[in-house]
Amino acid sequence: GDSVTQMEGPVTLSEEAFLTINCTYTATGYPSLFWYVQYPGEGLQLLLKATKADDKGSNKGFEATYRKETTSFHLEKGSVQVSDSAVYFCALKAGGSYIPTFGRGTSLIVHP
Amino acid sequence: DTGVSQNPRHKITKRGQNVTFRCDPISEHNRLYWYRQTLGQGPEFLTYFQNEAQLEKSRLLSDRFSAERPKGSFSTLEIQRTEQGDSAMYLCASSRTGPGDEQYFGPGTRLTVT
User: Fewer Cβ in 10 A, N or C end of chain B?
Assistant: First the structure.
């Protein structure tokens, strides 16, 4: 079945450091790919998405590129802020499905 | 748009008791989803509704779990004869109709079964 694998956390960075959170997936066909963010005490929010190979999703300084050849969708940000501290979930949706499959989440802690 | 709301935010119950959670979706959204999230895991799909019709249920949804959306607006999730393994965060999300439409999540209800 479909699955998503994320790097284990927590990822601990200093403010203004470069962020990469790795995500790889297994799916039949051509899924859509997503990154969600969950701040403490809040629900998940969609951060960015990409629906086909080589698409780049971007939002709030975060970027991820849909790489079909490596089945990856790594999340990057050039300069993190303390306010980016949260749990980040990679997810996929198979074509036509309404239900995303989520990874286990990666906690990001940014120190001043 | 007031977002998706869930009540209660926290629930502590004793094993064997029944509990019910409520989800109020965004008003114009006709799809509503329930997920369960345990510590260190991503959300796992339980069930979803389009309007008042329950269209899909996960194998995770045992006979002790039941969900309703009687008027196509708010939804309730009931767990009967709770077990310690039911302790988790229960998340609700809503969306418009298309598969490409974004799901908006509520803050969740944290259930602790003692």
Answer: N
Closest listed residue to residue B100, CA positions, set A33, A47, A6, A88? A33
Tokens of A10: 């927590």
Q: What is the radius of gyration, based on Cα positions, of chain A?
A: 13
* Residue pLDDT, tens place only, A81-101: 999 999 999 999 987 788 899
B31 vs A89: CB contact, 8 Å cut-off?
no
Length of chain A: 112
Q: Is B42–A41 a contact, with Cβ atoms under 8 angstroms apart? A: no
Read off the amino acid at residue A36.
Y
Q: Which of A41, A42, A89 sits opposite B42 (nearest CB)?
A: A89
- Give whole-number Cα distances, B22 to A35, B33, B94, B104, in Å: 27, 12, 13, 16
Structure tokens at B65: 């779990």
Find the mean pLDDT for residues B20-45. Answer: 94
B99 φ, ψ (degrees, to nearest 5): -65, -25
Residue B84, SS3 per DSSP: helix
Q: Is A41 on the interface with B (CB under 8 A)?
A: yes
